[in-house]
Each structure stands twice: as structure tokens, then as C-alpha cells.
Amino acid sequence: MEKQYYDNLIVSSAPHAVSSTDTTKIMGTVLLALLPAFVVGIYQFGYRAAVLTVVCIVSCVVFEWLYNKLMKRKQTVGDLSAVLTGVLLAFNLPSSFPYWMAIVGCFAAIVIVKQLFGGIGQNLVNPAVTARIFLLLSFTTEMTSWPVPRGADGVDATVGPTPLGILSEGGGQMPSNLDLFLGNVGGCIGEVSALALLIGGIFLIWRRVISPLIPLSYLGSVFVLALVIPGQDPIFHLCAGGLMLGAFFCATDYVTSPVLPMGKIIFGIGCGIFTMLIRVYGSYPEGVSFAILLMNVLTPHIDNFCISRAYKKGGGKKDE
To answer: How far apart are CA 45 and CA 71, in angstroms?
Structure first.
């Protein structure tokens, strides 16, 4: 009787909690949160921003489908993770970026960074962020040619520098913080409007898709460091470049960010420190992608540190 009782106990691997939320719903909610930034990107940079985004989405989905087919794995294109990777990668590209180069970046994101490490949930670093850095190092000229947005006043050119580029070079007319907030500046498709990204980020926090700890600690550390470093405008650094996109949509990736609250805060502060160091003292004007990638690599160590501290606090005194 006792043996029969224990035979009926089946222990499965974690997680054990049952919820109506699944990967597809989470990815769909994040895609919905990115819609305001997508609308601004199309308005500022025209139809090519939309086409480039579609190219990235289709490429990511096709690469994931083909890899699963060749490796005889279960198809995962329906979970929308490849779609989200495509959107995030497109949002990190200038609208003038050649389509074939974007497809190369999609291959790097899906096949090399994601699938070769085991697929969704197994990648060590964020696929879109890593692919952006790969494209920047491989096609530097194309990745740093910024079309002038429709909302930029008094500009008679087809391409121009980004606000962070102007800051790095130490010359040129800086846009107002209001233009940065609204998105009337040059930059990547999905990063120019701090307002649109803030709306999307607050929506994700409200829907409890992401924790506010990483965005707040990331943005807060950038703000504080900009106050401390001479000659820096905190509002400018919050609104410029890919900070809002990175803080709300890339640094909060479930797979590549810490699990515990303390770890999330450490992760966010680390991202902020690296971002400001690269922006102010580095040779490249933007540091968001590099900062997130570096902290992704450190995530397992942050988790180990925070988990060990949690066990020590709850373990009581050692026996004498």
C-alpha cells in the first residue's frame, strides 16, 4: 500500500506554478508596447523604416523555422520570440541600413546567439543586442549613417549626426531636450522618441510583464552619474540614444537578466555605469548595447552572489 502511494507521486522539473500566462502572450504584450515607438519611427523616417522592420521579422522567423526543421526540433516560431527579436533588431538600425546586411544580423541573432545555445531560454546574451554590436563592428559606415528625421527643423540634408554623435565630437548644434523627448532627432528606427518608449515601458510594468527594478536602477544611475560628471545634462542622457529602448525592452530580458530583486538592481546600476563611461570617455558615442552585453555576461555571477546571500540570511546560525 505504501509503495503504491509513493509510485503515484510524480515530481516534475520547475516551474511548478500554473498560470494562464505563456511565452506567446508575454511576447505579444511586449510587441504591443513597442507599437508607439514603431509609429514614431515610420513618421520620422518614412516607409523604409516599416519595410526594414518587416524584413527583420520575416528573416528571424524563417531562420528559426529552418534551424528547427534541420535539427528536427519542435517548431517554436509560434511563441513570437523570433518576431520580437526581429523588431528589436530593426529598432536598433538606421532606416537606411541595407536589407541584406539586416538579414545577416538576423542570422547572427537567431542561429548563432539563440539556437546554437539551445534555443529560447538558453541564450547567454540578448540576441538583438548582440546582433546590433556584430553589425556595428562589421558594417560601421552603414550603421552610423543616420537619415535626418522629418521633424528636424532647419536641416537641409539627407543624413546627419545623432545627438550623442554631436556630443562626442564636441561641435555642432545640439537639439533641445524636448526634441529628444518627442523624437525629432536622428538615430535608429525605434530609439528616437523617449516619450513613445516610456509609454511602452510603463505599459509593461502596469501589465506586470517586467519588473520596474532594472529600468529604474538603470535610468537612475545614468541620471546620477550625469549629475556628477562635469558638463553633462542628465535629461539629455536620459532621452538620447537607445537608453529608453535598452532599459525597458532589452535589459529586462527574462533569460539574460538576474532573477532576484537585488540582482536586478545590481544589473541595472552596472548597465548605467558602463553606459555613461562609454558615452563620456569612450571613442564610440553610444554605450547602451555594450553595457547590456557586458552585464548579460555577468548575470550568472550576479545570480550566484545574490542567491548565496539569500541562503545565508535564511539559513540561521551555524552550529558551534
So the answer is: 39
The pLDDT of residue 316 is 47
Which pLDDT band holds residue 309 (cuts at 50, 70, 90)? confident
- 147, β-bridge pairs: 159
- Give the end-to-end CA distance of the chain in Å, rounded to a whole number: 42
Specify burial of residue 11 (Cβ count, 10 A radius: 0-12, 13-18, 19+).
exposed
Q: Could you tell me which of 22, 15, 6, 104 has the C-alpha nearest to residue 55?
A: 104
pLDDT digits (tens, 9 = 90+) for 55-75: 999 999 999 999 999 999 999
As a whole number, the mean pLDDT across the chain is: 88
Q: Between 99-107 and 81-91, two packed helices, what is the crossing angle to 10 degrees?
A: 130
Contact 146, 268 (CB under 8 A): no
Q: Are 190 and 91 in contact (CB under 8 A)?
A: yes
Q: Kindly report whether the global pTM for this prediction surpasses the value 0.90.
A: no
Q: What is the 3-state secondary structure (H, E, C) of the chain?
A: CHHHHHHCCCCCCCCCCCCCCCHHHHHHHHHHHCHHHHHHHHHHHCHHHHHHHHHHHHHHHHHHHHHHHHCCCCCCHHHCHHHHHHHHHHHCCCCCCCHHHHHHHHHHHHHHHHHHHCCCCCCCCCHHHHHHHHHHHHCHHHHCCCECCCCCCCCCCCECCCHHHHHHHCCCCCCCHHHHHHCCCCCCCCCCCHHHHHHHHHHHHHCCCCCCHHHHHHHHHHHHHHHHCCCCCHHHHHHCCCHHHHHHHHCCCCCCCCCCHHHHHHHHHHHHHHHHHHHHHCCCCCCHHHHHHHHHHHHHHHHHHHHHHHHHHHCCCCCC
Q: Single out the residue of 38, 152, 140, 62 nearest to residue 97, CA to CA.
A: 140
Give per-residue pLDDT as tens, 198-240.
999 999 999 999 999 999 999 999 999 999 999 899 999 999 9
pLDDT of residue 17: 46
